Amino acid sequence: MLVLFGALLHATWNAMIKAGTDKSLDASLISAGGAVCALPFLMFLPLPNAAAWPFIGASAVLQFVYFQLVAGAYREGDIGLVYPLMRGCAPLLIAATSGFILDETLSTGAVIGTMTICAGILTLAFEARRGGGHAIRLALANACVIATYTYVDGIGARISGNAVSYTLWMSLLPPVLLFTWATSKRGTVAVAAHVRYNWWRGLIGGGGSIASYGLALWAMTKAPVATVAALRETSILFALLISVIVLKEKASAWRYLAGAIIALGGLILKLG
C-alpha cells in the first residue's frame, strides 16, 4: 500500500512537469523542492553508514541525468508515449538482471506479476498520437538510467542502515547540479525569474518526489528490488486518472486496457 501511495505521488509530480511552461526548469525546481523538504528532518536521523556515501554520490549524478532526460522527453513527445516507455522498460531491465546483479530469486508469481505490469504499461505506447524517434530514444535512454539508479539506491539503502536517512541525504546534491547547469545555459536572471513565480510548484512536486522515492527505497529493504520496481510503476494508473478526471483529457481504449492489465499484474504480485 505504501508503494502504491508512492506511485500516486510519482504520477502527480510528473504531471506537474508535463503541464509546466518550462519543463527543464520545472524539473530542477521539483528536485530542489525535494531537498528543501528533506533538510528539516536530517537532524533527527542518523547519518548513513560510511559504505553508503559512494552510492549517494553516484545516485546524485544519475538523478541529474534522469531529470534532464525527463524534461527533454516531455518536450519531444506525447506523455502517452514517453511515460510508458520510460517507466515500463526500467522494471523489465531490472527483472531480467537482478538475478546476477543482486543474487535475488523471484518466485514464479513475482515474475509473472512483474511481466504483466510491464506489459500493461507498455500497452499505453500504442495510443500515443505524436512523438517521433527522438522522443523514443530519450525515453529508452532514461529507462536505462532509471534501472541503473534503482540498483544503486536499492543497494545503497540496504547498506546505509536507514533507508529514510539515505533518501534525504541523496536528495541534496541533484538540485545543485541541475541549477548549476541551468544557470550556465540560461543565465541567472532567467532562472531566478522562473523560481520566483513557480517556487510553489517545486515545493509541492518536490515533497511528493522525495516521499515517493523514499517509500520505494524503504520497500526495497523489505522485498526484492525487481518486485518493488514493477509495483512502483503502477503510477501510470494514477496518471490515467489524473489525465481523465483532473485534466479532462480523452482516454483511448488502449489506456483502459492497460489499466486492466496493470491491475491484474498487481493482483498476481499480491497472490504470488
Structural notes for this entry:
The protein has 272 residues and is mainly alpha-helical. The protein is 82% helix and 0% strand. The chain is globular.
What is this entry, summarized?
The chain has helices spanning 2-19, 23-42, 53-76, 79-101, 108-123, 133-160, 163-170, 173-186, 188-220, 225-232, 235-246, 253-271. The chain has twelve helices and no strands. The protein has one domain (2-271).
Structural domain count? 1
Main β-sheet, in a few words?
Answer: none
Shape: globular
Report helical residue fraction.
Answer: over 70%
Rg measurement, Å:
18 Å
Which structural category fits the helices and strands?
Answer: mainly alpha
Number of helices: 12
SSE series: HHHHHHHHHHHH
Give the distance, in angstroms, between the N- and C-terminal Cα atoms: 16 Å
Low-confidence stretches: none
The proportion of residues in beta strands is under 5%
Tell me the total number of β-strands: 0
Mean pLDDT: 81
